[in-house]
């Protein structure tokens, strides 16, 4: 199903699977542990117990529930539950330990998305590590933010908003009213939980889970928003980092607005999502126009003719939708569909249907994974509670239209989509526990940062920025398209990741890997590397 920007912007929670000045302020959150009201650092709560059992009969995945403090500064107070999932190492004789995975979001349910995407992990990683994921606090099957009395009430609230983004003054007013209503509902439900769903809270949960599986140090793979979670963990618990790969990054200072609570740009404009999506959409249209309609149904024979065809289509949709396919819905679908190169041909088919005046046929979702709850409630308020509490956005709802026009001037249709992606944050309360730095605390072992050159969500410049901001990190460039190298695979990237996770070996500085399967083409031989320092792709068999 199509994804609302606030829910699907960084997460990639969509039908396929499933962003700088010197830091001037360091808060008390920079210390490793939380600080209680009396100024002391309490001892951590006992590690949660994980009673693993098959998620459902015959499933290769095990499930458990972990209890953790709602407030890590008050470990003897209220507890909440985290839903956890595991796939044991397939080569147990060679087992290294546990690899924790966060699928992004914020708001990605790890208990669903890790099983859905399990085969995307490098083979050697699956052989040598138990892979564990979880629904972060506030999300999915964990103790969750839910501001509605029933699914029907939630659906009615969502249906009252424009799809994709607002077009025109009335839709902008409707969207603002809907989000003001959402904040009122959420403040009435569980304000205690809302105050403790920050990335820092989740990083402390992650350390509790590390202790629960008995690993002395953390091995972690985070994609998209999961890179901010990883960077936060690395600076709260720098001595506990064994190996950490951060894939499709968000620059920390852009996420935190340089530690300032007053923002003139939205989160996604600060991280360049509009520019990244515009460049990737332009590449999609150019590559489509360079091939035949047999491989890209929307091709008009040349790159420029195909770009012109897209502009004509969006212009027509502005005047008259095709069924429920409005201009805004079509742009939102196009941007979201750029996340996975494997879905580009399907996107081209939908655009061609619209160009011919037909509403595209609905596509089936991915098969349900064999877990306890393959379809948990994932209301928009769950992503908002984390994103809006952690990352400042303009507080005046009236400012977003001017930001939209400025972004559209440089990024076209994609700029309109990404400007409104954080509009729900305008009236959302800030988290009292958001982590704002420092980001350069020396870690026990260096972090591996992976960035894709044409990323429609977390634009590539975020990855070099992450590598610069973390102490001693190493950048690996994925020359390709889509959001995350994990889900747009490169055998070369996987080889480097496998070696790094197994024995800590980093790729040489300047290493770049090509994508295995370029868009609209037959697969080509994989494993080639363009690298500084004479790196090779075959480091891991």
Please give a structural write-up.
Strands 1-2-3-5-4-6-7-8-9-10-11 form an eleven-stranded mixed beta sheet, sandwiched between helices. The relative contact order is 0.16. The longest helix is centred in the first third of the chain and has 21 residues, at 169-189. β8 (448-454), α17 and β9 form a beta-alpha-beta unit. The chain is 36% helix and 12% strand. The model is unreliable at 1-32 and 524-541 (pLDDT under 50). It is built from 18 helices and eleven strands. The chain has 541 residues and is α/β, with parallel strands linked by helices. The radius of gyration is 22 Å and the shape is globular.
| Low-confidence runs of at least 5 consecutive residues | 1-32, 524-541
Radius of gyration: 22 Å
How helical, in percent, are the residues?
Answer: 25-40%
Structural class per helix/strand content?
Answer: alpha/beta
Separate helix tally: 18
Largest sheet: 11 strands, mixed
Counted beta strands: 11
Strand-and-helix sequence, N→C? Answer: HEEEEHHEHHHHEHEHHHHHHHHEHEHEE
Distance between the termini: 38 Å
């Amino acid at each position: 199903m199509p994804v609302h920007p606030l829910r699907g912007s960084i997460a990639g929670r969509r039908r396929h699977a499933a962003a700088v000045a010197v830091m001037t302020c360091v808060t008390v959150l920079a210390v490793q542990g939380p600080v209680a009201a009396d100024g002391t650092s309490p001892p951590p709560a006992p590690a949660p117990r994980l009673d693993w059992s098959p998620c459902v009969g015959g499933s290769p995945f095990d499930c458990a529930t972990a209890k953790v403090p709602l407030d890590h500064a008050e470990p003897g107070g209220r507890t909440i539950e985290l839903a956890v999932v595991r796939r044991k190492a397939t080569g147990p004789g060679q087992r290294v330990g546990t690899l924790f995975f966060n699928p992004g979001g914020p708001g990605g349910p790890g208990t669903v998305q890790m099983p859905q995407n399990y085969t995307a992990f490098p083979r050697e990683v699956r052989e040598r590590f138990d892979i564990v994921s979880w629904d972060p606090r506030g999300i999915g099957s964990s103790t969750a933010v839910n501001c509605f009395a029933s699914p029907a009430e939630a659906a009615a609230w969502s249906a009252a908003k424009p799809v994709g983004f607002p077009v025109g003054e009335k839709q902008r007013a409707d969207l603002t009213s809907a989000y003001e209503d959402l904040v009122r509902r959420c403040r009435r439900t569980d304000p205690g939980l809302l105050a403790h769903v920050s990335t820092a809270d989740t990083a402390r949960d992650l350390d509790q889970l590390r202790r629960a599986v008995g690993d002395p140090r953390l091995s972690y793979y985070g994609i998209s928003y999961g890179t901010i979670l990883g960077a936060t963990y690395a600076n709260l618990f720098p001595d506990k980092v064994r190996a950490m790969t951060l894939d499709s990054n968000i620059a920390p200072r852009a996420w935190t607005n340089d530690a300032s609570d007053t923002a003139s740009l939205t989160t996604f404009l600060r991280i360049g999502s509009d520019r990244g999506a515009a460049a990737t959409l332009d590449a999609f249209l150019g590559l489509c126009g360079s091939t035949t309609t047999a491989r890209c149904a929307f091709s008009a024979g040349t790159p420029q003719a195909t770009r012109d065809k897209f502009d004509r289509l969006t212009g027509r949709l502005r005047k008259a939708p095709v069924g429920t396919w409005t201009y805004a819905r079509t742009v939102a679908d196009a941007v979201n569909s750029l996340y996975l190169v494997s879905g580009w041909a399907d996107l081209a088919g939908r655009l061609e249907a619209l160009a011919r005046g037909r509403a595209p046929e609905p596509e089936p979702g991915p098969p349900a994974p064999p877990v306890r709850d393959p379809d948990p409630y994932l209301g928009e308020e769950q992503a908002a509670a984390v994103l809006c509490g952690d990352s400042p956005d303009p507080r005046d709802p009236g400012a977003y239209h001017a930001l939209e026009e400025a972004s559209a001037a440089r990024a076209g249709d994609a700029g309109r989509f990404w400007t409104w992606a954080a509009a729900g944050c305008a009236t959302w309360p800030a988290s009292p526990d958001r982590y704002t730095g420092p980001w350069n605390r020396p870690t026990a072992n260096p972090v591996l940062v992976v960035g894709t050159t044409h990323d429609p969500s977390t634009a590539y410049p975020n990855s070099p920025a992450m590598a610069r901001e973390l102490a001693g990190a190493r950048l690996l460039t994925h020359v390709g398209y889509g959001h995350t190298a994990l889900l747009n695979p490169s055998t070369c990237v996987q080889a480097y990741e496998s070696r790094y996770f197994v024995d800590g070996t980093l790729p040489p500085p300047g290493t770049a890997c090509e994508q295995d399967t370029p868009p609209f083409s037959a697969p080509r031989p994989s494993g080639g590397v363009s690298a500084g320092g004479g790196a090779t792709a075959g480091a891991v068999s």
